[in-house]
Amino acid sequence: MKQNKLRPYLYLTPSLIVIGLIVVFPILYTGYISFTNMNIYHWFNPRFIGFDNYAKAFFVFDSGFLSALLRTVLWTFLNMVLQMAVAYLIAVLLNTEGLRAHKVYKTILMFPWAMPGYVSILLWKMGMFNNEYGLLNQWLRKLGLNGVRWLDGNVSAFLSCTLVNLWLALPFMIMIIDGALQSIDKAYYESATLDGAGFFVKLRNITVPLVRPIIAPAVVITVFTTFKQFDIVYLLTQQQGSKTGADIHTVITYTYEKAFVTNNYGYSSAISMIIFLLLIFFSLYTNKELREGNR
Amino acid sequence: MKKVFAFFMSVLFMLGALTGCQQSSGASPSANPSGASTSNAEKKEPVSLTIWYENDQKIGDALQQQLDKLPDVKVKVQRKDKMTDALKLVGNDPQSAPDLFFFAHDKTGLYAEMGILAPITDFISQDAFSDFIPMTLKAGTYKDTLYQLPIYFETQMFMYNKKLMSTPPKTTDDLLKFAQKNTKNGAYGFVEQHSTAYYAVSWMHAFGGYIIDKDAQPGLNLQGTVDSLKYHKPFIKYQPADGDYNTMTALFKEGKAASTINLPNLAVDAKQSGIDVGFAPLPVVNATGKPLSPYAGVQGVYVLKSSESGKKDAIAAVLQELAKPEAGIALSKITNDAPANNKAYADSFVSSNEIVMNLKGSADAVVPMPNVPAMDVMWSVTENMLSAVNKKDGDPKAEAEKAQKTALTQIADMK
């Protein structure tokens, strides 16, 4: 009996060891470094300095950090709303009865996911938003209009980044919603139609309640990846050698520019730990909300 | 049976997962040093040394070819991606670190402060550098200690499309007039990476300003720096707002820009694209009488402190070989950059290469990129200032003060 209880743990051991090595250990090690003065002047001989790095880290959380935090919340919210709405619309269209070659469309829609994010972002930067060579300004000029400096202004840069994020994130969301829609038994809709229900009634009373448990984990994952998005904002507006002047820092790009470039690993680790804790609290809160919503 | 299989798979998976953690039992890059280990051998075994580099494979091949000539030293020139990070991790570990590495001079201070570098003069006499261009030696010197054996350098040049510009401007005022007159219908008189620190600094130097000095003091709010920002601003009006590398180089290579300031490789690419490229000295700023003075990057070899003491003679032999003009000539043939050793210019290939000779001609006027660790934070701070002034019409004085304050904070945060 005792042996039977232990056996599952034995089978789990390899996975737990791998998770411990690649997830838990780096977090613990970052926590350890955050209490030392590990920087280029004490690279191989760091010493314990208590909470000094944390005290210094809170100076990073100045007015610039607060506006970056608010911008990140707005960025996350806007992106989630757009992703859900557009992905839902596309998924519904893909599930239209009688649609020919829908597998071809699905494959095409997955393309942005197949490309490395870094390449996609730089293609958007040079191919679409570039003032000189970008497709958008070429079109405007053909129409006799002046080109727009898409990535220079704060608002236009923010919207441009949102567009690129949408392009990159849609395949995942479409795939999830498409799968969720296909799992709904068509009999529900047929019965509702016989009862005289319209599109919105069916949407509210059948589709949403049935797809919600399937989509919820994907939404949580996407909220976090959007919240800690770095590549898009950094590569489009902050990349060294081609900064555009737009100040649309998110929490991650702001702390990167304030702390990580200093080569002070103790200090950077302290900031990482604070952001990590913020995300953990955020995660617990979101999970609680979802659990309550599913009841 | 199922249980046995599951148990077997668990153990197999665990072993597989941990395989990567195993330390190589084979020869380490620094293994087999000379000395006692060879005492029993009848014939003296050559000493093995490893050199890391991150550049193009052709550069590594040329170095390898040069060092294969050494009789008693077996050198392995090994390409290493993300070498900067790798050196930070293993720079003091004789089992994992190389003995030497080939890299640009601007990280000298960083590695010296980390304590992983050995002074070059521990292996090779200062007299060996009597024929070297002084600027190249200054570049690899940190806190009065020479850490880099310079091999070649590169810097920015004024280059122009002979079809679009008949006479290159001697002054910046002439350049501005030319840009005003010739910028129309998608064509430009002059383009540069105007908001990139590496390029914009040449304007600062011409006004007596700078990004950071050798004592790690930022100079972004100096009068000279602010004056350069103000003076430079009208030039931006006649250039694409992007100001990034891809846009500016594409315009020059496509024959849409009459002139530019850039690195030698652009001249090579433009010639391959059919542009008749001319070179001229960097224009002089009328207001100060000084020419634009860009940064220079010096490529050379460093010795790691962790390299075992038994290899001192072998390392000295490698350095002596690379200090010869032949090394600079061989690499110049690949890179079109200028050898650090003056004797290399007696070679007919070098002396007939217009690009190389232009670089050599500017050696006294250029400024080696700062090699202090604090420079790492200055790139971003300076570019934020430049993009605010050049792209968002920010006030030069206000932006310079803001940038100086940020720079001081970040330099303090490094410690």
TrEMBL record, chain A:
Lineage: superkingdom: Bacteria
Membrane topology, from the record: Multi-pass membrane protein
Pfam families found in the cross-reference section: BPD_transp_1
Alphabetical UniProt keywords: Cell membrane, Membrane, Transmembrane, Transmembrane helix, Transport
Chain ranges passing through the membrane: 9-29, 73-96, 108-127, 155-177, 210-227, 265-285
Coarse class of the protein's main subcellular location: membrane
Limits of the ABC transmembrane type-1 domain: 69-286
Family: Belongs to the binding-protein-dependent transport system permease family.
Protein name stated in the entry: Sugar ABC transporter permease
Automatic annotation (TrEMBL), chain B:
Pfam families, sorted: SBP_bac_8
Keyword tags: Cell membrane, Lipoprotein, Membrane, Signal, Sugar transport, Transport
Native organism taxonomy: Bacteria, Bacillati, Bacillota, Clostridia, Eubacteriales
Signal peptide: 1-19
Stored Gene3D superfamilies: Periplasmic binding protein-like II (3.40.190.10)
Originating organism: Caproiciproducens galactitolivorans
Superkingdom: Bacteria
Protein name: Maltodextrin-binding protein
PROSITE patterns xref list: PROKAR_LIPOPROTEIN
